[in-house]
Amino acid sequence: MTENVDYKATFDLIDVDHDGLISAAELKNLMVALGGEVSDEMAEHAVTVIDTDGDGLVSLPELADYLGENTPKS
């Protein structure tokens, strides 16, 4: 398991309602703010890929594990 502290700032940036979970809507809003074109379906799929407990939301440990596994090692 990846250390959550490494990804807390990123998580907090996405979790705009500060409920401790990232929804597909929050992820989409971030991508749009960064200039991306993201459909609801794309955002929902991204959450599904990261969401390991099947609740339809992304927690900090889930995001940290996903990013830790998908970040190139230097």
Automatic annotation (TrEMBL):
CDD domains: EFh. Pfam families: EF-hand_7 (PF13499). InterPro entries: EF-hand-dom_pair (IPR011992), EF_Hand_1_Ca_BS (IPR018247), EF_hand_dom (IPR002048). Residues 2-37, 38-73 form the EF-hand domain. This is EF-hand domain-containing protein.
